[in-house]
Amino acid sequence: MRSKIISFFMAATMLMASAASAGDYAFRLFNDANGYVIDGFYTFENGRWSDNWLDYQVGSGDSVSMDWYSDEGACVVPFRASWVDYGAEDFSIDWCQNVENIYMEDVGFTWN
Asked: Residue ranges of the alpha helices (H) in the chain?
């Protein structure tokens, strides 16, 4: 009986530890490009593009906090950014690499 109780507490402790370390893909999107306005941010999962994650446009020099509210699924998820009067381009990031900030540059994106 004692070994069952110890096993139960060990399992409960491991579950609490994994829940405490589980996070989500929260990041800040910065528009560091000159003269471009971001009007769309989409992710590609399950064979289709998501709805636009942005509620408003992100002008040059501005930023916005974003959060997937989950850390489940593939680490490398393509994303598509679109700009006013420009169109859209596709990129990929390994979200499991603790991405905290994404920077739109004059050409492409960088992240850390």
From this structure: 2-21
**pLDDT per position as a tens digit, 26-83:** 899 999 999 999 999 999 988 999 999 999 999 999 999 998 787 777 888 899 999 9
Prediction pTM value:
0.74
Q: How far is residue 74's CA from residue 18's CA, in Å, rounded to a whole number? A: 18
CB distance 13 to 29 below 8 Å: no
Q: Answer whether 34's CB lies under 8 Å from 104's CB.
A: no
Other C-beta atoms closer than 10 Å to the C-beta of 102 total: 21
DSSP letter at 1? -
Two tokens, residue 11: 């399992």
